[in-house]
Amino acid sequence: MSTTNSCDEHSRLLSHDESNLEEEYHQYNLSLPKGPILYSLWMGSFLGSIDSTIVANIMNRVAEEFEASDKKQWIVTSFLLTNTAFQPLYGKLSDLTGRKTALMVAHSFFLIGCLFTALSNSLTQFAVSRAICGMGAGGISALSSITVSDICTAKERGVYQGYANVVFGTGSLLGGPVGGFLMDTFGWKCIFAIQVPLIMTCMFLGYRNVNIKLTHIPPPGERLTWKNLKRIDIGGSLSLIGTIFGVLCLASTDLNKPMLAVLTVVSGVIFAMNELYWSEERIIPIHLLSGTFGITSLLTIFSSFIQFGDVFRNPVYLQLVQNISLTSTGGFLLFSSIAGATSSLTTGWILRHTKLPLAKCSYMLITIGVCLHFTSLSLGYTTISHLQPNQTSYADAVDTLNEAGNHYWFQAGQFRWRIFYVMAMFINSWGYASLLVSTLVSIVFTIPRNQQATITGCFYLWRSIGTVIGASTVLTIFETSVSSKVYKYLHSQGMDKEFDILIHDTSYLRSHFKGSQLAHLLELYKDSFLISYLPTLTASVIALVIAFRLFLSLERHPHDKDGQL
Predict the structure, then answer these.
(1) φ, ψ for residue 268 (rounded to 5)?
(2) End-to-end Cα, the chain, rounded Å
(3) What is the CA radius of gyration of the chain?
(4) Cα–Cα distance, 489 to 193 (Å, whole number)
(5) Does residue 475 surpass a pLDDT of 80?
(6) How confident is the model at residue 405 (pLDDT cuts 50, 70, 90)?
(7) Residue among 52, 76, 68 nearest 127 (CA)
(8) 87 close to 142: Cβ distance less than 8 angstroms
(9) Which of 227, 264, 447, 517 has CA 20 to 30 A from 164's CA?
(10) What are phi and psi for residue 387, nearest 5 degrees?
(11) Which DSSP state fits 390?
C-alpha cells in the first residue's frame, strides 16, 4: 500500500515539475524579442505571397510560350498539390525537431524549387519545379503562424496574425504589377532567379533568431534520429497526395479514367484507415474534428475553394476576354490584396478589443466572411454576364462603344464596369482574410497548447485542400467548356486546324481572328467563364448554411470558459 502511495506521489511530483517547466518555457517564449523573430518569419511569407500572385498573373503567358495553353492549370495545381500534402507535416516536424529545423527544411525546398523553375525549358519541367516550391512554401506559411502562437498570448495572436496578413497581402499586392513588369521587361525566368538570394537571406535570419523552447521537443541529440522522425505520418501524407492527385487527374486529364478512379478510391481508403486505425501520431487528429473545430475546418475548405477559384479565374478572364495587359491586370489584383491586408488588421483589432467572449466574436466574424463570399460572387457573375467582350488591341485605353455592344449594360471601353469588378474582388478577399484570422484565433482557445502546432498545420491543410480543388476545378471547368464550345463553332466553319492551334496558344485568338468571328469566339470564352462560377457559387451557398449553423449553435451554448483569454 505504501509503495502505491509512493508511486502516486512520485507521478504527481513529475506532473507538477513538467507543468512548471512548461509554464517557465511559455513565459520565456513570451519574453523573447518579437521583432527579429517576426522579421525572419514574415520575410519568407512575403516571398511566398509575391511568388503566388506572380504565377497567377503570368501563367497564361508562360503556357502560351510553351504552346500548352490547354494545360495551364498544371502550372497552378502542381504547386498547390505538394503545398497541400506537405503543410500538415511541418506542424508535426516542428514538434519533433524544433521550430528552427522545420523552418530550414521549408526554406530549402522553396529555394531549390525557385532555382529549378528559373531553369525550366518546358511546361512539364516548370510544373515539377513548382511542385518542389510547394513542398517548402506551405511549411513557411504554417510555421510562421505556429511560431507566432509560441511567442504571443491568445488576444495578441489576432493582432499579430493581422500584421502577418498585411505582410502577406503586401507581397500579393506587389506580385501582380511587379511580375507583369518583369515579365514584359526581362521574361519570366528572371522572376524566379532573383528569389534565390532572397530566400538564402531568410534562412540566415531564421537560423539566428528563431530560438523557441518547448517541453515536448526532444533534446538536440535525439531530434534527427530515426526513432524520433518515424513518428511523422508519412503514410498519411503519401496517401493524401495520391488521393488529391487522382482527383485532379480525373478532372483535368484524358488518362485512363477507370484506372484513375480505382487508384483515387484506394488512396482515399488507405488514408482514412491510416488516420483512423493504423497511425499512432496522425497527420489529422480525428478526435479533434468534432464540434466547432470540425465546422470551422469545413468553412476554411469552402472559403479557400471560393477565394482561389476567383484568384486564378480573374487574371485569365481579364487577359483573354477584356484584352487587359499583364501590368494592368496586376493593377486589378492590387485591390484584392489591399482588401486582404486591411481586413486582417481590422479583424485582429476587433478580436483584441472586443468585450464579447472570443469564441462568439470569432464565429460572428467567420459567418460575416462567408456572407461576403456569396455577395462577391453574385456581383462578379452579374458584372461579367452583362459586360461586352473587348475586340480592340488596347483595352486599357480605347473606347469600344459600337452598335453591337448596345445591348450590354457595360461596354468594354467604359470605366464603370471596372468599379463593379474591383468591388467584387475586394469584397471576396475581405471576407476570406477575416475568416482566416478569426479561425486561427479560435484554435488558441479550443485546442490544448501542446497540440496547437499540429492543429495549425491541419488548418493550413484545410486551406490548401480548398485552394487546390478550387483553382483546379474552376480552371478545368473553364477549359473543358471553352474547348467544347470553340470546337463546335470552328468545326462548323471548317476551321479544325485553327482550333488545334488556338487551344494550345490563346494568343492566336486575336492575332488571327477578326470581326464577327472574333466577336463570336469572345462570347464563347465569356460564357465559359460564367459556367466556371457555378461551383464557387454552389460552395458559397453550402458554406452559408454551415456558418449559420455554427453561429446558432454558439447562441444555444453561449458559455465558453476560455472565451475571455
Answers:
(1) -65, -40
(2) 42
(3) 25
(4) 42
(5) yes
(6) very low
(7) 76
(8) yes
(9) 447
(10) -110, 130
(11) P
> What's the whole-model pTM score?
0.73
| Alpha carbon 174 to chain centroid, angstroms | 17
Q: How far apart are CA 147 and CA 106, in angstroms?
A: 14
Residues constituting the chain: 565
In the numeric block, which cell numbers belong to residue 454? 499540429
CA proximity to 410, closest of 433, 390, 432: 390
Contact assessment for residue 314 and residue 332, using Cβ atoms and an 8 Å cutoff: yes
Write down the pLDDT at residue 537.
Answer: 96
The 3-state DSSP class for residue 410 equals strand
Are 339 and 426 in contact by the 8 Å Cβ rule? The answer is: yes
- The whole-number pLDDT of residue 455 equals 76
Using DSSP, state whether 387 is helix, strand or coil. strand
- Dist. CA 100–CA 503, nearest whole Å: 46
Identity of residue 263: L
Task: Label residue 400 by pLDDT band (50, 70, 90).
Answer: very low
Question: Using alpha carbons only, what angle is made at residue 161 by residues 157 and 162, rounded to the nearest 5 degrees?
Answer: 120
Q: Write out the DSSP string of 74-125.
A: HHHHHHHHHHHHHHHHHHHHHHHH-HHHHHHHHHHHHHHHHHHHHT--SHHH
Q: Residue 527: name the closest of 390, 424, 363, 381 by CA.
A: 381
Sorted by sequence, the CB contacts under 8 Å of residue 481 that are 6+ apart come out as 527, 528, 531, 532
Query: Strand ranges (DSSP E) for 150-281?
Result: none
**Is 537 within 8 Å of 381 (Cβ atoms)?**
yes
Distance CA 428, CA 169 (A): 14
Long-range contact pairs involving 196-204 (C-beta distance under 8 Å, separation at least 24): 196/111, 196/114, 196/115, 196/118, 198/43, 198/47, 199/44, 199/47, 199/107, 199/110, 199/111, 199/114, 200/111, 201/43, 202/40, 202/43, 202/44, 202/47, 202/107, 203/104, 203/107, 203/108, 203/111
Spatial separation of the C-alpha atoms in residues 197 and 6, rounded to whole Å: 59
* Contact by Cβ (8 Å): 236, 280: no
C-alpha cell read off for 40: 525572419
Q: What is the pLDDT of residue 510?
A: 84
**Domain residue extents for the chain:** 14-210+223-232+292-556, 234-280
Residue with cell 486564378: 312
Q: How is residue 218 annotated by DSSP? A: P
Using pLDDT thresholds of 50, 70 and 90, give the confidence band for residue 379.
very high
- Tally of CB atoms within 10 A around 285: 15
The CATH number of the domain covering residues in 14-210+223-232+292-556: 1.20.1250.20
Work out the angle at residue 67's Cα, subtended by the Cα atoms of residues 175 and 314, and round it to the nearest 5 degrees: 35
DSSP 3-state of 394: coil
Residue linked to cell 517564449: 29
Kindly provide the b/e burial profile for residues 12-24, where b requires at least 16 CB atoms within 10 angstroms of the residue's own CB: eeeeeeeeeebee
* pLDDT tens-digit series, residues 86-111: 777 787 788 888 888 889 999 999 99
Give the contacts of 319 (CB within 8 A, at least 6 positions apart).
60, 325, 326, 329
